[in-house]
Amino acid sequence: MRHIGKTFPATRRQAAVTALEDVSLTVDRGQVMGVVGPSGSGKSTLARVVNLLERPTTGTVTVDGTELTALPARELNRARRGIGMIFQQFNLLDSRTALANVELPLELAGVGRSERRARAGELLERVGLGDKLGSHPAQLSGGQRQRVAIARALAPRPRVLLCDEATSALDPVSTASVLDLLRTLTDELDLTTVLITHEMDVVKRACDHVTLLESGRVVDAGALGDVAARPHSPLATRLLPHPAPPTGDGVVELTVSGDGHDAVLTELIRRYAVQVAVVAGSVETLGDQRFGRLQLRLDGAPRDVRAALDYLAQSGATGGDGADRLLAGAVA
């Protein structure tokens, strides 16, 4: 997405509303991108712009090298088959079985009965519902219905999967299992997945990258590891809660990833004549990597404490490829 703007025109009852303003967003193949923000921030509008269910007022949308915003209607309809969509309320047809619901997009595309039935059965098996082919939505739990919806979205073999608050109606256990399924499917099928959500726990569990929308604008974005290592960024404070504010001389707060804190603390103690005590901290798992904020109290001669704090402040990264990142700031 490049410089996307979306303004809904004025009506008799309401002035014009700008839902998106100069939004640029890139999601690579095989990535899961989380798009978060408060209600009214433009998240759902952004999802609908990706497949041009809402045509942007300005800007371009390109999927797998094809600029969708430049396509005529017939070609756009064909291109949309490469973009699957999952909704909060499942949108299954109550009169159809799970198998028939998954068959529906293939039926509409003119795929023969035997081929679409085989494809639907294969997908239901893949999402863990191989024993529910003949069940109707009313006979399924919320998590099972969402798995049917995922299978249906995958039926036309899309390259992109859009999930608009796909877990908001589910209990915590079902949410976790559906997110794990989406992560697995993205990896195994080489999908490009966008998760629209207002829940940071969804981002922490399933996403590689995250974008924060506020009032229709991107205010922060990046890989989870990168944004978590920016202690004062809007996303970092949501992804990695701060411990209670540190107090007193010689207290420093670190943001660390992986096992980076072990190497840094070992080197700190080895090189400087200071005693190090962890006074507070929090640890979170973001994607498949652990991050933490640690507050350390450094005791020793003022000159030694200052030298140790300078070392921490200068330790911007530890390691090379995919390096653990460490940021330090002294609080007096």
Task: Summarize the structure in short.
With 332 residues, the protein is α/β, with parallel strands linked by helices. It has eleven helices and 17 strands. It has two domains: 2-228, 3-Layer(aba) Sandwich (Rossmann fold), CATH 3.40.50; 241-331, Alpha-Beta Plaits (2-Layer Sandwich), CATH 3.30.70.
Description:
The protein is an alpha/beta fold and 332 residues long. It has two domains: 2-228, 3-Layer(aba) Sandwich (Rossmann fold); 241-331, Alpha-Beta Plaits (2-Layer Sandwich). Helix content is 35%, strand content 28%. The chain is built from eleven helices and 17 strands. The strands form five sheets. The protein has a six-stranded mixed beta sheet with strand order 7-8-9-3-10-11, with helices on both faces. Strands 13-14-12-17 form a four-stranded antiparallel beta sheet. A hairpin with a 2-residue loop joins strand 13 and strand 14 (289-299). The longest helix is centred in the middle third of the chain and has 18 residues, at 172-189. The model is unreliable at 316-332 (pLDDT under 50).
